Give the backbone structure.
Amino acid sequence: MEELTDIWLNFFKEERHTDDWWMRKKALWRGRESEIVRIKGDAKIYRKLRYENETEYAYLLYVSYFIKQGDHFHMEEQVTPYRFRVRDGEITDHKEVPPASQPTLKPSITPDEMQERSASERFSYDRLAAVQYAERWWNSYNPNYRKFDVDCTNYVSQCLYAGGAPMRGAPVREQGWWYEDDNWSFSWAVAHSLRWYLSGSEEGLKGKEVENAAALLPGDIICYDFEGDGRFDHNTIVVAKDSYGMPLVNAHTDNSRMRNWSYEDSTAWTPNIQYKFFQIGE
């Protein structure tokens, strides 16, 4: 049987180059007067299951893209889970592993709860600390927190907390934004709930919605409704700006670093996608 590195190379070079996802990725950077000048990849098996007549492999595909924008360069990195089956020496069913779905939950924020917040909850957002945390943990998991199957919002919440955002509302999961022992608010870990929390919070951690991505700074948050159906599925944190002043983001679930903010190269992207752009601590 081929080595796993050979498998991913064949899959990427012989199949993915004609895939809609890959065409969108190239078009995305071309549209920003940029070019992917080098691609490097590796893969690591994390699960192997033997059945009577076949074996199923699950692996993580790491790919880095060296991107040129004018006279400047940056490296985008992404880790995506895949699986395939081997039967009689033939590879079949080779595909990306989709993330589990999240519930659609909107935290309740009552007037009484607003009154209970103390002046000490007002904070000065440390954007550098939030970004440093995002860079430290983009492709690993802080053991002080639970790892979720859909981990994007948990990761973003950790970054916000590292930047000084105050928790509040425990132990009521429908209220506030908090993580405590092995319990947490919906807004801490559910994409749709964090989107609504940022919209509704008036003290402590709050988000000021802006019209376009260019207005965001490192440490700010982008929320994604891939289907455009009003249910937000994903969150990212801005960690840098590209040569043209547009955000580059980090994320979990499909772990990504310095990714273009628009996610046009994502397999979850649809033409109906909607975004929410939040400045934090403004």
